[in-house]
Amino acid sequence: MVRWEPYAMVRITAFLVAGILVAIYFPNLLSPAQAIIFIGWLAVLYFIGRVLLPTNWVGIMAGLLGLCATFFIGYALLQLKTNKNDATHLQNVQNSIKAYTAIVRSAPESKSKSWKIEIEVTAIKTSQWNTATGKVLLYVSKKIGAMDWNYGDQLLVLGSPQLLRPPANPAEFDFKRYLSFKNIYHQQYVLPESVKRTTPPNRKGFIYYSHKAGRWAIEQLNANVTSTQGQAIAAALVLGVTDGIDTDLQNAYAASGAMHVLAVSGLHVGIIYAMLLLMLKPISKFKGSKWVVASISLLVLWGFAFITGLSPSVLRAVTMFSFVAIARPFGQRTNIYNTLAASAFVLLLYNPYLVMSVGFQLSYLAVLGIVYLQRPIYNLWEASTKVGDWVWQITCVSIAAQVATFALGLLYFHQFPVYFLISNLFVIPLSTGVLVVGVLLLMVSFISPVAWLVGKILSVLIYLLNQTVFFTEKLPFSLINGIHISTFQCLLLMGALLSIILLFEFRKIKWLYSTAIFISVFSLIQWIHFNEYFSRRQFVVYAISGHSASEQIESGNSIFLADSSLLHDEERIRFHIRPNRLQQGVANIAVSQRTNNKADSAIQFLYWGGKSIALVSHRKAKWPQKLMVDFLVVSKNAFPLKNFISQQMQIGTFIIDETNTAAYSAKLTKFAQATNSNVHDIKQQGAFILTE
């Protein structure tokens, strides 16, 4: 193991990250101008210190002032890179926008009913045309047909982009906050007649041709790999494009601990780099060969990034290994930790919001884990055969990466794959084969017979990879899921793991004490959370566009009531409903379907916590002569506004779910107010929640 001595770039990058994080969580602490003034004052203090301090103190002072300056640089950089701070940003426009022009900034991504595209606004029309800035997530109805828009195309869009809304359901993923880290604050859904491609790109630069190359690469893979799942896996492993992976396949990879292979990352780029070093080994005996190898490596790595369309995950991994390739000729004058820190430093200077990217965090932690832990773990046992040694090496890599990313995996994915060691013995070699053969296919794609043969080999490798994953998923207890921890608990787990590592490194009792403290605090928080939520009773009417869904939760048990289409939509349940179940500690779920076809049974009555609740979902429902309920959940415009006699009812609160039209919801709101009832419009106010 390495000694824990000071590393210059590690310290510098740590202070840059600290400044960025403070700017994210405390954006109003300082303005960019104030941060720059602080940097100026630090420079003045440095020059004063050089004059007044003894020589042996100047170096220490310069280091401290430099790190402080780096902190403020990180803070100012984040503020300057936040687009909404611009006076011309969409978020600062007061008047209603009738139309706007924009530039396409991403490849079209296929959704179930629309094409999703990231666009950058250039001008808006209110009373007149004005310059504007801002990014919009544009959803174009698939009625437009095939989407052949290219990076840089000019668009004219009618209508006004809408501000992204915060999560509408309890504990739901904050998509608004996630997109804010990409400087996206608006979205819009348009029909084909409301959007027009006006002109091609003004300048066809490097990124334009990279996107064209990426599209060409996908076409070549699709032409030579026949199955839909095979095409999706090939695009993911070779190009980093994960759009086509269906939910079942994604769940299988997650359950088997092979999720890391579904996007081009440090593992994939590291494989390419290792193969390059192996192929270039014969020239290592020549003078200056190290710089030749470094130059060729950079050319190939960035060529690979170009072909993949410069996707963020590929850029991150290629940048990381570019620094490794550049540092390699320096030999003993560099170390891997400074090299990795330098690559992170450059990436964060380019885009400070990367620090909040899950991929960025997992990539660097996994690489650090492998660099620091793989060799010591490997040295614990010496295999007697070459096959055993190969198996042990892959196992050590898997253990090192899993240990380093364990806490983040629980925080972000709420699960732990039990058989990750077994699956990775097959997944890593097979995914390596898919990557290598996929790149080879692109290289020989212009020779049809050879491309056909290579495509068949690629299809077989993908089939074996998928079958391995599906087999692992079906093993008993393959996945521990339903895990809920907070960000603070994640940090406590990381602290405990680090303390254990340091305990083995330094053999000091203080690291055993710190491990015990971290684990004790983690357990205490988990116990408090369990007691708080397990004893809580909750009734929720969820906010899910076009669907009716309610849930009663008590002591880890749930009664889930929803329409039939939602009950079969696992993706929406996972996104909108599952987070609340995780937080509430739900273990058992009883599912029931909303009755909305037969008029006689279209009103359902529930009794929860001493409260009476009625749910209506059919316009011809047979109403009782007197209706006295605390809550009435209305679906599909089912409450008869015109024919209902107010004296026959006593309704405490009308709950208007997402299946009602906007016009009907407005009328029902007025009706409820006229009859002295309360109203909760889920489209406007989010999910309705009762707790005890």
Please explain how this structure is put together.
- It is a single chain.
- With 692 residues, the chain is of the alpha+beta class.
- The chain folds into five domains: 8-80; 90-204, OB fold (Dihydrolipoamide Acetyltransferase, E2P); 208-481, no CATH class; 487-534; 537-691, no CATH class.
- 52% of the residues lie in helices and 16% in strands.
- It is built from 21 helices and 21 strands.
- Strands 1, 2, 3, 4, 5, 6, 7, 8 and 9 form a nine-stranded mixed beta sheet that branches. Strands 15-14-13-12-21 form a five-stranded mixed beta sheet.
- Helix 20 links the parallel strand 19 (649-656) and strand 20.
- The longest helix has 28 residues, at 386-413.
- The protein is globular and about 95 Å long.
- The two termini are 53 Å apart.
Structural class: alpha+beta
Strand content: 15-25%
The number of domains? 5
Categorize the overall geometry: globular
Which residues sit in consecutive blocks of at least 5 with pLDDT less than 50? Answer: none
User: What is the share of helical residues?
Assistant: 40-55%
Largest sheet: 9 strands, mixed
> Radius of gyration over alpha carbons?
29 Å
The number of E-state strands comes to 21
Q: How many helical elements?
A: 21
Mean pLDDT: 87
